Amino acid sequence: MKSRQSSLTIGLVLILSLGLLLAACGGSQANNGSPEVSQPSPGGTPSSSAPQAPATVPDASGESSNDLAAAQEITIALSQELNSIDPIVAVDSNSSSAQNNIYEGLYRLDAQARPIPAGAKALPEISADGLTYTIQLNENARWSNGAALTADDYIYAWSRAIAADNAAENQQFFTYVKNADKIISGELDISELGVRKIDDYTLEIAMEKPATYFTSVLVSTPFFPLSPGYVESQGAAFGSDSDHAIYNGPFILTEFSGPGIGADWVYVKNDTYWDKDNVILEKINIKVVKETGTAVNLFSVGEVDQIGIAGEYAQNEINNPAFVSANASTLAFLGYNHTSELFKNKDAREAISLLIDRGAVATNLLGDGSAAATGITPYNLQAHPVTGEDFARTLGDYVYTDVERAKELWERARGDLGITTVALDIISFDSDRMKTVGAYLQGLLEENLTGVSVNLNITPVSVFMENAKKQDFSLYLVTWGPDFSDATSLLELFESASGNNWGLYSNPDYDAALRAANNELAIDAVGRWDKLQEAERIILTDFGVSPIFFQSTALLRNVKLKDIIYHTTYPIYDYKSAYLVN
Amino acid sequence: MKNFSRHLIKKVGIMLLTLWLIITCTFFLIHSLPGSPYVNQEKLTPAQLEILNRQAGLDKPLPEQYLIYFKNLARGDFGTSFQFKNQPVTKLLLNRVGPSVQLGFQAILTGTVMGVILGMISAMRQNTWVDSIVTIIAILGRSIPNFVFAVILQYLFAVKLSIFPIALWGKFSYTILPTITLAMAPMANSARFIRTEMVEVLNSDYIELARSKGLSHWQIACRHGLRNSLIPLITLLGPMAVSLMTGSLVVENIYAVPGIGEQFVKSIITNDYPTIMAITILYSAMLIIILFVVDLLYGLVDPRIRVTGGERLAA
Question: CB pairs under 8 A, 24+ apart, for B307-310?
């Protein structure tokens, strides 16, 4: 009933405000830019599929340089405008990728998602208790106006990011830094933030609690430095267009007329960049093209060198040599409403999980390079601290299909619960993939489970959130992308206390394993890894949630364009090492 | 004249009232939509949400927010977009409305001229094969959605024949295909309309008179038939022009035009309150003004409808 009311309100607003405007629209095709829950909006530029070659830049004197094209200029089509060039408010994939190319934090991620020094000279020196990080800064780093980059620039930027009057959607990144949460909530003054300058080129960070993955978190845009003198001199104009910002990344931004306004912009190689000798591309033109069909046409005549594709387009192009499927990094899963009598019953949850043919979903239904989920943690998110093995690939076989067993379990659950028929509500948000998979699940459950009828309720993300937070569903189907390169980023979603644990899954063993991994074992990298794997096995064998597929981003890329780095977390893509060959 | 100015004042009053009603209804309706306007709302904690709401003034009671909104509006401040960080909505719209208005204007001009010509030919050659062809064109133009035209035109003239650019925004040549696409509906509408009107006019008594004066078939059509048929067309064109100039989501997406069509739809989906409000106000104001102008024009062109002691209100 609630959802009917919401859709009624939406309907009224649409009618009132859209009027003729929409009448002329006919069937709008939800593009890949449509909002997906925490899904890095695609249309981006991830790079080649696993196994990924190390993204080494060809040596200027080496053989490969002979292959370099004379003109190092490319054009890339994106499906979304650039929302912001102010690091503290970059919350979408486009903004964070753009900012990662024009600004630079202490660390960048390499092709294997390991942090490598950038604004810092080396990896941090971490105290034995994991509570103090000492970071030497790179003394060659410069702003694009020639000014030196110092510890003050970091401290200023971080303080600005968590200041109450700047309250931004990114503040959760700072939760690791001592006192940050208390400053955000207004209990402490900004000067109490756990970061201080030892000298101009040495920064010391005090931690709230140890976190081995904190160096990976430091690559996020909110930790980028800003020049206090410059930002203050610009006032409200800072970041309003490409002329009102200074840069310290491999590229500088030009011809950008402002957030939401500019439908094209340009990255030009930054001559003041400390590592400019390893930047080969001279110019990157970005064009916003929202319609995949149009992007495909532009690509087919060679007007653009890279486009994002999805759905049918991806299926059609999968054999094209220009087709690239990025690392499948985002988890799509089915969550259960653990407050309902039905799904308190483990047999019922297991029955549904065992029905899902994940291979068929990934290859036949989606066919866009997505992979069948093997667990909660996607591939290439976290590597073993010693062996370097992939977290997902070493987990073991816990996600599988067995239709006969599913039917047995279902009958048992029905008997135990004394139910004959049951109506299930699956909620999801508006996106092509969710519609496809939602319809598949609807058919699957109705066909195989006796007495089940399924109502599939696909709504815009804000309506979905409203229903999800009130547990107004039987099952929810979402995608969730990790925030940083650590399994915790996804596993913490199902902790009892997590605000995003919409199904209210609660398992003391699971909570304990996660807590151990991130507290007692926080600085024991190997012990921590084992605990995280244990936690994931607990929830998978308990069928607390059912992973379905690892979503990848498919794109068409000029075969002569090499070594764009793709990351599983924000910032999604990195042009620093990219180049064109003949 | 006194009558007229009184009529004018009353008219403007009603226009303002209409606008106020639209703003008020929209304001309360959009704020009753579920969800928040923040981009990664699913990852925000309740505490963060509270801070953000306080900052954006969304924690205040709705009537108070409404008063604040009006106070700012009176100063010409439409607020700041949520979706595009720190971007004043006024700047956002001013910079994006240009391409939409240009395309809309070109489309309504092309469409109407083509439609009038087709409609005339059709009426003059009533019940012949020419008439049938025009009718078929008009029906197709009206019934085929414009995104189909857009895709076909793009494939044919840009991808295959390379006569025009595929998409994006730049020189005049970039506007041709989207203009043709958008012109289809006004063309079909006015062709049908002109045909009907002209057939009616051509059967009137004064046409018989003109004919007996010895004017040629085409002279009669242009001087008498067309002029009299054009008058009612004005009422049709006003609202059509507004809807075209405020941008078409699909056509702008297919041709990658940086207009406001998509922004509006996206602002609603993402609960970007200030943007929804501003576009709604822009759109309604344009519509109200155009209707007013049409009303005035109508009186000027056709003395039979001129304001006398009583008055006439536009629908």
Answer: B307/B3, B307/B4, B307/B7, B308/B3, B309/B3
The closest alpha carbon to A295, from A285, A284, A305, belongs to A305
Q: Tell me what the mean pLDDT of segment B282-286 comes to.
A: 87
Strand order in the sheet with A195-199: A125-126, A132-136, A202-206, A195-199
**Would you call B51 and A287 a contact, using CB atoms and an 8 Å cutoff?**
no
CA–CA separation, B313 and B315 (whole Å): 6
Q: What is the pLDDT of residues A22-52, one digit of tens each?
A: 333 333 333 333 333 333 333 333 333 333 3
Q: Do A35 and B270 touch (CB under 8 A)?
A: yes
In DSSP terms, which residues pair with A323 in a beta bridge? Answer: A556
Residue B308: the pLDDT is: 52
d(CA A166, CA B44): 15
Handedness of CA A485, A491, A494, A495 (dihedral sign): negative
Provide the percentage of residues in chain B whose pLDDT is more than 70.
Answer: 92
Quick check: A391 and A320 in contact, CB under 8 A?
A: no
As to burial, measured by CB atoms within 10 angstroms (0-12 exposed, 13-18 middle, 19+ buried), residue A408 is middle
Rounded Cα gap, residues B214 and B205, in angstroms: 15
Using a pLDDT cut of 90, give the percent of chain A over it: 52
Residue A254 is inside which H or E element, if any? Answer: strand A251-254
ipTM value for the complex:
0.81
Q: Helix and strand tally (H, E) in chain A?
A: 18, 23
Helix (H) or strand (E) holding A214, with range, is helix A214-217
- Residue B306 — pLDDT band, cuts 50, 70, 90? low
Tokens of A358: 């994940």
Mean pLDDT of A62-75: 76
Q: Is A296 left (phi over 0), alpha (psi -120 to 50) or beta?
A: alpha
User: Judged by CB atoms within 8 Å, which residues 398-427 of A form the interface with B?
Assistant: none
Find out whether A244 and A255 touch, Cβ atoms under 8 Å.
no
The alpha carbon of residue A446 is apart from the nearest alpha carbon of chain B, in Å, by: 30
In terms of DSSP H, where are the helices of chain B? Answer: 2-31, 46-56, 62-74, 89-124, 129-143, 146-153, 173-202, 205-212, 217-220, 227-245, 249-254, 261-269, 273-301
Question: CA-CA distance, A44 to B139, in Å (whole number)?
Answer: 41
Is the Cβ of A86 closer than 8 Å to some Cβ of chain B? yes
Q: Which residue has the higher pLDDT, B303 or A526?
A: A526
Q: What is the pLDDT, as a whole number, of residue A51?
A: 34
Q: What is the pTM of this model?
A: 0.80
Element containing residue A324 per DSSP (H, E): strand A323-325
What are residue A433's phi and psi, to 5 degrees? -65, -40
DSSP state of A48: P
With pLDDT > 70 as the criterion, what percentage of chain A qualifies?
Answer: 87
Q: How far is Cα A194 from Cα A43, in angstroms, rounded to an integer? A: 37
- In angstroms, the first-to-last Cα distance of chain A is 61
Degrees (nearest 5) of the Cα angle A188, A190, A196?
A: 115
Q: Phi and psi (nearest 5°) for B275?
A: -70, -45
Q: Among A31, A263, A461, select the one facing B169 at the smallest CB separation.
A: A263
| Domain residue ranges of chain B, discontinuous segments joined by + | 102-271
Fold classified for B102-271: MetI-like fold (1.10.3720)
What does the block give as tokens for A488? 């915790």
Q: Which residues in chain B (232-271) have CB-CB distances under 8 A to chain A? A: 239, 242-244, 246-250, 253-256, 258, 261-265, 268-271
pLDDT at B243: 76
What count of CB pairs under 8 Å joins A to B?
Answer: 225
3-state secondary structure of A222: helix
